[in-house]
Model the fold of this input.
Amino acid sequence: MARIPRWADLILVPLISLLLAGVISALVILAIGQSPMEALTTMVTGAVGSPYAWGYTLYYATSFMFTGLAVTVAFHGSLFNIGGEGQAQLGGLGVALVCLAVPWPHWTLALPAAIIAGAVFGAAWAAIPAYLQARRGSHIVITTIMFNYIGAALIIYLLVNVLRPAGQMDPATARFPAGAALPTLHELPILSAIFDKKIPANVTLFVALIACWLVWLLLWRTRLGYEIRAFGKSEPAAIYAGISPFKVTMLAMLISGGLAGLMSINNVMGESGRLLQNSSEGAGFIGIAVALMGRNHPIGVVLAAILFGILYQGGAEIGLWTSIPIELRTVVQGLVILFTGALDHMVRMVLGLFFRPRRLEAA
Amino acid sequence: MDYATLLQILDSTIRLATPLLLACLAGLYSERSGIFDIGLEGKMLMAAMCTGAVAALTGSVWLGLLAGIAGAVIFAAIHGVASITFRGNQLISGVALNFVASGITVLIAQSLFHQGGRTPPLSGGARFNPITLPFAESLSGVPIIGPLYSEVLSGHGALVYIALLAVPATWWVLYRTRFGLRLRAVGENPASVDTAGISVVRLRYAAVVITGILCGLAGAYMAAGLQAGFGKEMTAGRGYIALAALIFAKWRPWYALMATMLFGFFQALALRPDVIKKTVGFDVPVPALDALPYILTVIVLAGFVGRAIPPRAGGEPYVKER
Amino acid sequence: MKGEIASGRQVTAAPYAIELRGISKAFGSVQANKDISIQVAKGTIHGIIGENGAGKSTLMSILYGFYKADAGEILINGHPTAIPDSQAAIRAGIGMVFQHFKLVQNFSVLENVILGAEDGALLRPSLAKARKVLAELAEEYELDVHPDAVIEELSVGHQQRVEILKALYRHADILILDEPTGVLTPAEADHLFRILRNLKEQGKTVILITHKLREIMEITDTVSVMRRGEMTATVRTAETSPEQLAELMVGRKVLLHVPKGEAKPGRTVLEIKGLRVRDGDKIERLKGIDLTIRAGEILGIAGVAGNGQTELLEVLGGIARGTGTILLNGDSLDLTGKFSDGQSRRRRGISHVPEDRQRLGMIMDFTAWENIAFGYHNDPAYQKNALLMDNGAILEDARGKMERFDVRPPIPSLQAKSFSGGNQQKIILAREIERNPDLLLVGQPTRGVDIGAIEFIHKRIVELRDAGKAVLLVSVELDEIMSLSDRIAVMFDGHLMGTGPAASATQVGLGCLMAGLGGADTRAMAGWDISSDAHEERQATGMRA
Done:
């Protein structure tokens, strides 16, 4: 394998991957007879060109931070949690139940309760795949995929048959009480000077940033984090050290599921104000791209989440203002995952050419 | 449930099971060679779009089928490059390609037809038309078996019969031919194949291409058999159900047939909630039927009903040891 | 052409079955083979002996087309032959039995044999033919294996026979075996040697790669010695002695002198009674062990790899579960329950330097300082408060330990994988020995370690003993056991064959016990307690399930 410096591995590999994804996307845009430049300018103005645009970008980035962290924590334990989608939707159920159960007087009271509920429900949905992996050796990738579908079916059933208020047609819960509404950035002091219009980005952004910091502490400053990382690198060595594979698998997955569940604070509580079908809208999957792009480090996750926020918001703008369908962002997302997660050896090999002293001449 | 209703449900079971069966057999080749493939969904989608588009443009379902196969094989080849040549993470590659397929199919369909990411509705020679099996007419009078033959088995598109024939064919290839022996060996212990002087890389690419072809058939049937044209995300998770069926079948061809028929039956039942209510006496929620294949697969994965042991070298890139 | 070989006789009659001329191969900066030349006559058994890492396996991999040599040429039956891949090697009549078998576990013997050597696209004729050929080969060479048996149900010895059958089915005239007895019981090894002699009689050429002198002396006609990638000599076996070979192998007198004083055994630290352990496949690996170790002594466990030593270390170290009684300082250890894990063992004062240091002993991607805390990450000294670890304290601790154990380079922030084998071992020893344990478990302390580090490691182990601690040493190197231990126990097939003072142990006597045999040589060892399990006569014992 080509040897490249560590900094290049950390910074250049994701950047080159992004560049490759960008180039291919541009080719795709050209191939369907549209202008890549137009797409890029639309995307940039629509996603970062104004405080209003940032309001959307940061809203998406908030969700992606949570799901990116979820994938990151599991990855460190060498568990590929692909079930963020289902865990986020179940987290949404928890958030909805808490928000509807009590006529909350103020959001500062509702938020902590919703955080607990979202995390617990998300963690619970990760618990069964985690248990099956730890005790029965069932491949967690497959079980979490299955649980995404089972979760979606469960939510649909609950929304249609149980939680839907009488007389309402669409499958959704009732609206949450006003006291459970989270302030958007535009409603917060100081920030309201920047964000002058109603935007979806809300206080959950700060919860997400705190979560990033906590995950960093967890992974590199706590015994549990040490055990998760050790287990992720070598299971036999972990057993030698007296680290329980069962405990680590369960805890890593519960934390991962909990983080995915927390995403629902942002969209269910902060934005839609009620639980809808497919509330996660693919953010669980984008978490995979964010974690890979962010090199499984919380700082990287923050940056990658903002990047994907731009892509998501910018992609929506492209869908709105150009003839390029909004699905372009799914293509870019897939390409980024492909290059950072599956073709990373290829990217490194290419980079290695630049870092290796030319040995051919010497020979 | 009366016999006529049962026949109707069985008829739609076969139609709904066909794409599952083809995709499941597709996955079987790849995974038996040691390459995990959770990108069946994406390949089917790609094939459905290519088939829908070319069949609409040319009016020929067969050209559409070829295009569908080509589309799926391209995606299979990318998966092969990532997981065989560059020894990347096969699971991530599969996930990534599913996303790429989900987006790019809409992009292409939209740029070709400007119909909101759909292809135009297909009809006539642009679809797989029903084939009446020999003696279907004359046997229909025979009690019980007659209608089963003429109404359930007969009258499907060509791909349904190809799918059904692919089961014994796969069994035969796997257990009776040199290629099958090597394929099974490379998925269990690639070093055994390598030391015997056979190229691991070439075998795995061959398997991955077969996976592409079968996914192509599955997608083509979706667009030109089960439905009349391509629509956004039309595979609706069938690639994952096929994957579930593959595990349920423990990577064996005849069991794959049974598993996909079972899952197809659930899908057929989900279309007829009235029948279920009449039969079991209470309302079974449709989402429960939708979730049933996944729940059953989890139970199998948990090892409560016999253990599902995947090919031993599955998911691991092959690196010659020193 | 440089590199005239040592035996250097003129070629007159038949050409050599194999001749290597000036083979060199480098992996990066490591020169694995340096200008190697060998000649092997037809119909002989040629041994290649050398320590681990001497370059034997690389050389054979070149011969089998796995690697391309940087320089040199290969002659088969006198003809220069290019071997770019395994297929070419097979065509040239070379068959290889690898140390780790290349068999498909859930295939039948027949399927494994024909894999890659099928006669056509359909299997049926090939299978029928193979069945017939196998029956003939079985008769000719004592190579009987049931053709329809599934590999995973066969014993290791039988699996090896399948590998030999695979080669013969492909008409191999030259058979290379890489460390073939490492996994065999003595009875299986005897059978293998009978097969090899049969092959020789039928005119086949055999190359046997091993690091065991006894095997070389027993079966080979000629032997080449490798050391650090170079061929140091080729001699006729009949004209050499184990002592001479050992010296050629290591490059100096082999019996390592470990400077140590008289042991002063104190109270009993470890007492094992009726210990039984089953492995992951439910096969019993320890079949009722009784053993005591006292403070201030080193007990060495001698034995061929795979006779239960690993399981003994694992159950004591909290990796495996077992039944029976183990008393540490008079209190029993939990063998199955909540307190049978590595953490509980460390709390009770047991430190463990595992046999496989890269797989078990450290996390190769962690830094050296993170590895210094490995297994002791719950130590209160490493914690800042109830929630957070004190990485600064660990780093400081690592710095001191690495300095005291002369780890080079002494940089705690370096990843474990960037240290050499010897320095990795020193990091582990520093971590385990400085815990000042009541009982130190040490497995293969010097495997893959350079000579300078070996002496350092031995010295540290003796120092711990002199500090009044108990040491359990497991090593497959008999020399290491004999020079380092105060008492020796010999393990065979999950039983202890005998226990006694190291001073009166002889190489021959230990060798008999390691093969599960009693007899005069073992009785000659004064003060030894020989188990009734040790058979007087050589017979088929200990066949695995």
